[in-house]
């Protein structure tokens, strides 16, 4: 379906549903006790690659990705949390970077990062983007920390993410919008990195593939992924709308498919979140029986998904400036946001310094600079 956003159906103000409340989500958000020490190290690691210009760095720090990791993974150990925090930085930077590319350059970047994941010891080609070095450093540490089966699952999910955002780049160029909610969710499971985020939960434990792929466990995991996707798309729509990059957002698919107004579209997606949450919670007590050791490790997976969704809600809704700017505390009280077609309300596009090995800074300029506060 070609991109034809139904602007006549847009309203200026919408009420966001309290997703965890309306779905009776039993998990509460807590913060990992290693948050502060890991945050500093993770920030310093990210900045060592000099991908951001100073002005973009200021906006970038306000998003607080180490806090995202600490809320999403409240029970993991310090070394584990450091990896998760670095991954949150990496995912955001890669997403922004691939968004500045098109066609051949997007494919080159995709192939570079995939090659590093598949063989991190292989030397990078001359002139390769610095994101290649960043990926190699991060992935090498993941491999050293993780058991082989968990590392393999995480690698596959990251490869799906990388290929997914490349396809999203091509769709953006072609003006393509997902034709249905089902198609959109299938796409967003990869482009939101939701499976990768879930796979981070169990890096240190062995869960047999026969258990992870069991139809009931697979369904639980997919419901968790969909909860992440739906939540993210509701929270991020206003930012994407202000950038005209909402083509792959679930709300856009609903707007085009169901011919609803904006508020009814948000409510529709809220009800879809409730359906997925109910399916997840109803299936939890009926999971098949395994050995006691497997059930203990499987609990890390299923319980972790519940805590992950709660942590993402806390970060996205009001504890970060990523989606709501400075208005998070207000939105938390009244649940209302003003839709905008103007960029100045958000630090939306990161001004990237796209580095190569040989020739230093080659600025990839977005239209952001005029909108960032001094």
Provide key terms for this protein.
mainly alpha, 16 helices, 374 residues, two-stranded antiparallel sheet
In short:
The chain is mainly alpha-helical. It contains 16 helices and four strands.
The helix tally amounts to 16
Computed structural class: mainly alpha
Largest sheet: 2 strands, antiparallel
Q: What is the strand content?
A: under 5%
H/E element sequence: EHHHHHHHHHHHHHHHHEEE
The radius of gyration over CA amounts to 20 Å
Low-confidence stretches: 2-9, 341-374
Helicity, in percent?
Answer: 55-70%
Mean pLDDT: 84
Could you give the count of β-strands? 4
Strand order of the largest sheet: 1-2
Question: Which geometry do the CA atoms define?
Answer: globular
Distance between the termini: 40 Å
Protein topology:
Elements: E1 13-15, H1 19-22, H2 35-47, H3 54-63, H4 65-72, H5 78-98, H6 103-118, H7 130-145, H8 148-174, H9 181-191, H10 194-199, H11 209-212, H12 215-243, H13 250-258, H14 262-283, H15 292-319, H16 328-334, E2 336-338, E3 352-355, E4 361-364
Helix pairs in contact: 2-4, 2-5, 4-5, 4-15, 5-7, 6-7, 6-8, 8-9, 9-13, 12-14, 12-15, 13-14
């Amino acid at each position: 379906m070609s991109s034809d956003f139904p602007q006549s159906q847009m309203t200026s103000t919408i009420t966001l549903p309290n997703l965890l409340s309306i779905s009776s989500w039993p998990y509460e958000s807590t913060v990992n006790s290693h948050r502060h020490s890991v945050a500093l190290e993770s920030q310093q690691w990210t900045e060592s690659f000099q991908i951001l210009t100073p002005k973009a760095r200021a906006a970038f720090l306000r998003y607080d990705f180490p806090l995202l990791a600490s809320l999403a993974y409240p029970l993991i150990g310090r070394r584990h949390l450091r990896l998760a925090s670095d991954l949150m930085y990496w995912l955001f930077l890669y997403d922004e970077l691939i968004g500045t590319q098109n066609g051949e350059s997007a494919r080159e970047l995709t192939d570079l990062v995939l090659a590093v994941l598949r063989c991190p010891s292989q030397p990078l080609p001359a002139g390769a983007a610095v994101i290649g070095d960043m990926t190699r450093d991060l992935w090498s540490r993941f491999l050293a920390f993780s058991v082989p089966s968990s590392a393999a699952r995480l690698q596959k999910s990251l490869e799906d993410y990388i290929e997914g955002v490349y396809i999203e780049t091509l769709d953006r160029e072609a003006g393509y919008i997902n034709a249905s909610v089902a198609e959109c969710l299938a796409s967003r499971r990869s482009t939101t990195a939701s499976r990768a985020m879930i796979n981070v939960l169990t890096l240190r434990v062995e869960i047999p593939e026969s258990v992870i792929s069991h139809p009931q466990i697979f369904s639980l995991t997919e419901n968790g992924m969909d909860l992440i996707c739906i939540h993210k798309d509701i929270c991020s729509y206003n930012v994407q709308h202000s950038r005209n990059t909402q083509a792959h957002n679930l709300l856009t698919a609903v707007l085009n498919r169901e011919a609803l107004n904006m508020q009814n579209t948000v409510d529709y997606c809220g009800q879809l979140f409730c359906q997925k949450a109910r399916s997840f919670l109803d299936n939890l007590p009926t999971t098949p029986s395994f050995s006691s050791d497997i059930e203990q490790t499987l609990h890390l997976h299923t319980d972790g998904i519940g805590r992950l969704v709660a942590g993402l809600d806390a970060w996205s809704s009001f504890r970060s400036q990523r989606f709501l700017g400075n208005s998070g505390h207000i939105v938390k009280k009244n649940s209302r946001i003003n839709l905008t077609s103007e960029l100045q309300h958000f630090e939306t596009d990161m001004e990237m310094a796209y580095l190569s090995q040989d020739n230093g800074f080659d600025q990839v300029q977005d239209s952001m600079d005029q909108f960032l506060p001094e």
